[in-house]
């Protein structure tokens, strides 16, 4: 629900317009808008995902998830992001909290991209605007203050952190203060610690995704292909 502020309302309708144009099995479906909520607030009506966010699910499951499910969920998220980037939409707030899941079929869990509230439509090659997102998932170029023009590769950086969340079930940098996190990300000396038992393909894709230089990060098309190969090696349909 959104309390009514004029600029917020304009943003809200813009978001509703974007959402209504999206149709992909790995992006949460948008059904419409409720205009007369409590105190005149507005709300979007979207598809219900039975297990809530991936973050909630990881918390309930003692933060561990087997390799097969992990690859499937990451693959779904990558497919959804590949579609959004194909539509020139940059999410800006990709994290496990904004990935929604249905885990009822243990053979084939489903993951969808949710919460496009901060998303922006990319004009030409760069996305203009101020800093937005959630600190541990924010790419160095968003935090450095050098430029307010960033590319869709900020979502790829966030995806690297999402892969780490899926791997460990932990919150990134949970024992650090904001200023330390910002400094560490900006000078590329800080990334989450990768456990020794992490499989090499996962590690390589994760590290590539959170590379300091945007140009060194893979596209979501490449990420999808690499995750597909991992899934094929495990006979995942």
Automatic annotation (TrEMBL):
InterPro entries attached here?
Answer: Kinase-like_dom_sf (IPR011009), Prot_kinase_dom (IPR000719), Ser-Thr/Tyr_kinase_cat_dom (IPR001245), Ser/Thr_kinase_AS (IPR008271), Ser_Thr_protein_kinase (IPR050167)
The Gene Ontology biological process annotation of the record reads: signal transduction
What Pfam families does the annotation carry? Answer: PK_Tyr_Ser-Thr
Q: Where is the signal peptide?
A: none
Residue stretches spanning the membrane? none
Q: Which residues form the Protein kinase domain?
A: 1-227
- Any single GO CC term annotated in Swiss-Prot or TrEMBL for this entry: cytoplasm
An MF annotation (GO) of this entry = protein kinase activity
Domain of life of the organism encoding this protein: Eukaryota
The protein's name: Protein kinase domain-containing protein
Q: Which organism is it from?
A: Aegilops tauschii subsp. strangulata
